[in-house]
Amino acid sequence: MSLNYAKRMDNIKASEIRELLKLTQQPNIISFAGGMPAPESFPIEELVKIGKDVLENTGTLALQYGPTEGYQPLRDAIAKRMAKVKVDVKAENILVTSGSQQGLDFAAKIFINPGDIIVCESPTYLGAINAFKAYEPKFIEVSTDKDGMDMEELEEVLKNNENVKFIYVIPDFQNPSGKTWSIERRIKLVELANKYNIGIIEDNPYGELRFEGEVLPAVKHFDTEGRVAFLGTFSKILCPGLRLGWVVADKEFLNKFILVKQGADLQSSTISQMEVAKFLEIYNIDQHIQKIIDIYKVRRDVMIKTMEEEFPEGVSFTYPEGGLFTWVVLPEYMNARELALKALEQNVAYVPGGSFFPNGGNENTFRLNYSNMNEEKIVEGIKRLGKVIKESMR
């Protein structure tokens, strides 16, 4: 059978991470590949009680359709939480989405015609690359350092390319690099977006998972003209199975997201929204987030320490102040995809870094996740990986 599929399907490939995760379901694999939260952090008992309460007392409402914008008490609660990143916002500026991944798809749908340009960090989130590619954009990658995107390079890009539609950034504990932008870079980003009339999509799934240092204002905090859309999620601070995220934007901008959501899935799950709203009402989510941080910080520390001990000279890696990932750079002559096959032979998995560069290249890099393996497995996995790297070096 040969069906006549849309041309855009040529741009949509299986996620390398999702394909790797199939391999890592085997119990003997030590996987640093996924971006999955620690399952022991899920508030199962609390959600069982809440689910029972929601269904017994408000079952007909929970199982019914709801407004596209989202359940009002949940939007009110999200608006209050946005104050933590210094964003003063009302519920009317919030759309509940089915995870922040849906917000990425909507952003591309709103902005991109085939051939339009998306500017992003180099490297950037693979899930965003895949979401955007369906709409046939061109990508321009801007290099980064420890403080975030290179603003001089960004201005050159904006100055020399007329059809840039938006700049996509992950300013806090970036996926895959683990880097966090300085306040100065956040301010400059908004200034350049204003100057060149460009939208900004600020993706912030990890911002509340800070192990040390001060909480920084979101890019949205510096938004003076309503051109920043902030994407948040409950996947990393509660649990991903609920599939709930949100978009914060000025009303005119947000209305575009609302329109495309109506066409996509009408609304996000009513029962999930009511359960999360109830959780935020009766439990202290900040205490819950602190439990997650306590788990991840120990695992980050163990991974970094073991890499320092086991990885050979010539291999570098980032030191994230929060989030889920560290980023490893091998000598230029090495290929992390080939190395990944050798690592799998030793029952260790990671994601080769080339996948995080929309225009390819940089095959001497890879991403490691520390959130989903206990400390003992992290030590053993990094030791095996260090041995594989040493054996593959010239």
Molecular structure report:
This is 2-aminoadipate transaminase. One of its GO terms (biological process) is alpha-amino acid metabolic process. Keywords: Aminotransferase, Pyridoxal phosphate, Transferase. Its cofactor is pyridoxal 5'-phosphate. Pfam families: Aminotran_1_2. The protein is about 40% helix and about 15% strand. With about 400 residues, it is α/β, with parallel strands linked by helices. The chain folds into two domains: about 5-35 and about 285-390, Aspartate Aminotransferase, domain 1; about 60-280, 3-Layer(aba) Sandwich (Aspartate Aminotransferase, domain 2). The strands form three sheets. It has an eight-stranded mixed sheet with strand order 2-9-8-7-6-3-4-5, sandwiched between helices. It has a four-stranded antiparallel sheet with strand order 10-11-14-13. The protein has a two-stranded parallel ribbon with strand order 1-12. A hairpin with a 2-residue loop joins strand 4 (about 140-145) and strand 5. Helix 4 (about 100-110) runs parallel beside helix 5, helix 4 packs across helix 8 and helix 10 runs parallel beside helix 12 (about 375-390). The longest helix has 26 residues, at about 285-310.
